[in-house]
């Protein structure tokens, strides 16, 4: 297993950050990594997610939402072809740390037979994509501006 975990402090309340995180229709305006999401942030639902790591090829997958806890956490599980080959449990956590301030934790746990082969790419482009998204959501929450990394 391999886990990539990133964090950023954001001057925002959890409700505002959740509304930005789950406004999937607006992702193309501000998100440099997750280019689009179709579906609903609803536990048990299916999404269609398109990501494009910096310098990488776009990929689309159809994960199942494991948890959609408003103002707290969104988590989904996706598979490459078959479960157990290359699985990714992606998560976004929102934790209040002071009035009007949250810690945004963005990560993914990778497991399966092919993870070792992709480790360098995951620790490079994928982590950079997570960090670019974190900066962009921070900018959108704090400044209301569409952001690009």
Describe the structure.
This protein is of the alpha+beta class and 149 residues long. Helices cover 28% and strands 38% of the residues. It is built from three helices and eight strands. The strands form two sheets. A five-stranded antiparallel β-sheet has the order 1-8-7-6-5, covered by helices on one side. Strands 2-3-4 form a three-stranded antiparallel β-sheet, with no helix packed on it. The protein is globular, with a radius of gyration of 15 Å. The relative contact order is 0.25. The mean pLDDT is 91.
Features:
149 residues, alpha+beta, 3-stranded antiparallel beta sheet, globular
The SSE order reads EHHEEEEEEEH
Query: Major β-sheet, in short?
Result: 5 strands, antiparallel
Secondary structure tally: strands = 8
Shape: globular
Q: Beta-sheet strand percentage?
A: 35-45%
User: If you compute it from the alpha carbons, what radius of gyration comes out, rounded to the nearest whole angstrom?
Assistant: 15 Å
Mean pLDDT over the residues: 91
Low-confidence stretches: none
* Structural class category: alpha+beta
Give the helix proportion (percent range): 25-40%
Task: Please state how the strands of the largest beta sheet are arranged side by side.
Answer: 1-8-7-6-5
N-to-C CA distance? 28 Å
Q: Note the total helix count.
A: 3
Offer a concise description of the structure.
With 149 residues, this protein is of the alpha+beta class. The chain is built from three helices and eight strands; from the N terminus they run E-H-H-E-E-E-E-E-E-E-H. The strands form two sheets. The chain has a five-stranded antiparallel beta sheet, with helices on one face. It has a three-stranded antiparallel beta sheet with strand order 2-3-4, with no helix packed on it.
């Amino acid at each position: 297993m391999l886990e990539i975990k990133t964090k950023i402090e954001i001057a925002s309340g959890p409700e505002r950050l959740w509304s930005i995180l789950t406004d999937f229709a607006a992702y193309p305006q501000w998100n440099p990594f997750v280019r689009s999401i179709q579906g609903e942030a609803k536990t048990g639902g299916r999404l269609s997610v398109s990501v494009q790591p910096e310098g990488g090829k776009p990929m689309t997958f159809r994960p199942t939402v494991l948890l959609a806890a408003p103002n707290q956490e969104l988590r989904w599980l996706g598979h490459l072809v078959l479960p157990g080959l290359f699985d990714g449990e992606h998560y976004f956590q929102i934790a209040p740390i002071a009035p009007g301030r949250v810690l945004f934790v963005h990560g993914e746990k990778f497991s399966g037979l092919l993870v070792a082969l992709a480790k360098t790419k995951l620790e490079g482009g994928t982590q950079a994509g997570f960090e670019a998204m974190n900066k962009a959501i921070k900018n959108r929450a704090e400044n209301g501006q569409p952001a690009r990394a």
